[in-house]
C-alpha cells in the first residue's frame, strides 16, 4: 500500500481555510503565518493533481473536487482524532469525567441509585449531570456534549438500549372545573381548559409533545414548575407519576377521570455517544444505569 502523499495536518489546514472563511482567518485560528497556510494548500493541490480552491472575489471557494475531498477528509481527521483519544485513554487508563445528559421526565431516583453505586468505583472520575427536556437531550448528544444520554425519544442515527417506562398521568387540582363536572371527561372537555405544557429545551427543532390544541396553553420551563402551577389550580397537565406522588397523597392534585388517555407510558432509552470510544468509567456507569432502571416506580392511587 502506497503511503499517503497528503498528511492529516494538511487536511486540517484546508478545513480551517474553509471553516474560517479564508487564509488570513485560518492563519489566526491555527497560530501560523498566512504564507505557510497558502503554501500548505498550494502544495496539497500539487500533490493531489486537482485544484481544491478557486479565488472568488476576495474569498477562497471550494471547487467541485475540493468539496468532495474535503467532505471525505473530515471523516478521516475525525477518525484520527478518535484514535489519538483512544490512545490517551489507554495511557491514562481512566476517564477524568463522564458527561451524562438526562431528560427531566426520567425518574431521578433511578439515576441517583446508579450514581451512588458508581461513586465507590469511580476512581475520582467526575460526573457532569445535565437535565434537558425532549429534543434538548438529542442536541447535546449530536453536538458531542454527552457521553451518555437518557431520552424518551427514538433518536435517528443512534443506537439506544431500553431502560424503563415512565408513566404520565393527567391531573388537576381537586377544585378545578374539570373535576366539578363529576363525570368521565372527553377530549372536548379538555379543549376548553388551560393546559400547562413544559417547554422543549432544544433550540434547533423543538417538539410540541402532549399539547391537545386547547384554547389556552401556558408554557413553563420545567416539570417542577408545571407541577406547582397545576397544584395551585392553574390548568391541567400530564405529569410524570413519580414526580406527583406527594401532591396526590396530600390532595393538591387529583387524576382526571378521562374516558381515554388518562395515563401515557413513555419508553426511555440509554444512548452512548457513537462518535467517542467508551472508556471504562463510562461503560461501568452505563451498566449501572441499565441495572437500576429495573427498580419499580412507586404506586400511585387513582
From TrEMBL:
Q: Where is the HTH lysR-type domain?
A: 6-63
Q: Is the Transcription regulation keyword given for this protein?
A: yes
Q: Report the Pfam families cross-referenced here.
A: HTH_1, LysR_substrate
Q: Which UniProt keywords apply?
A: DNA-binding, Transcription, Transcription regulation
Keyword flag Transcription regulation: yes
Top-rank taxon of the source lineage equals Bacteria
Q: Tell me the protein family, please.
A: Belongs to the LysR transcriptional regulatory family.
Put simply, this protein is called LysR family transcriptional regulator
Amino acid at each position: 500500500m502506497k503511503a499517503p502523499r497528503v498528511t492529516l495536518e494538511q487536511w486540517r489546514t484546508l478545513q480551517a481555510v474553509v471553516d474560517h472563511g479564508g487564509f488570513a482567518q485560518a492563519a489566526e485560528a491555527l497560530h501560523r503565518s498566512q504564507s505557510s497556510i497558502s503554501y500548505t494548500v498550494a502544495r496539497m493541490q500539487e500533490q493531489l493533481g486537482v485544484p481544491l480552491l478557486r479565488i472568488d472575489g476576495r474569498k477562497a471557494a471550494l471547487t467541485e473536487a475540493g468539496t468532495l475531498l474535503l467532505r471525505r477528509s473530515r471523516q478521516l481527521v475525525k477518525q484520527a482524532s478518535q484514535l489519538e483519544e483512544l490512545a490517551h485513554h489507554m495511557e491514562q487508563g481512566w476517564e477524568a469525567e463522564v458527561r451524562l445528559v438526562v431528560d427531566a421526565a426520567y425518574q431521578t431516583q433511578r439515576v441517583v441509585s446508579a450514581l451512588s453505586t458508581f461513586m465507590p468505583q469511580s476512581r475520582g472520575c467526575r460526573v457532569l449531570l445535565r437535565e434537558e427536556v425532549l429534543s434538548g437531550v438529542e442536541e447535546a448528544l449530536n453536538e458531542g456534549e454527552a457521553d451518555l444520554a437518557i431520552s424518551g425519544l427514538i433518536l435517528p442515527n443512534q443506537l439506544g438500549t431500553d431502560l424503563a417506562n415512565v408513566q404520565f398521568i393527567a391531573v388537576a387540582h381537586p377544585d378545578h372545573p374539570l373535576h366539578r363536572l363529576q363525570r368521565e371527561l372527553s377530549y372536548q372537555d379538555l379543549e376548553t381548559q388551560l393546559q400547562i405544557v413544559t417547554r422543549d429545551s432544544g433550540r434547533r427543532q423543538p417538539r410540541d409533545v402532549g399539547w391537545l390544541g386547547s384554547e389556552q396553553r401556558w408554557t413553563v420551563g420545567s416539570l417542577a414548575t408545571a407541577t406547582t402551577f397545576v397544584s395551585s389550580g392553574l390548568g391541567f397537565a400530564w405529569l410524570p407519576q413519580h414526580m406527583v406522588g406527594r401532591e396526590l397523597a396530600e390532595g393538591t392534585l387529583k387524576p382526571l377521570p378521562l374516558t381515554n388517555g388518562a395515563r401515557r407510558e413513555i419508553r426511555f432509552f440509554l444512548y452512548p455517544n457513537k462518535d467517542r470510544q467508551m472508556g471504562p468509567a463510562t461503560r461501568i456507569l452505563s451498566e449501572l444505569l441499565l441495572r437500576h432502571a429495573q427498580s419499580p416506580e412507586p404506586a400511585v392511587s387513582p
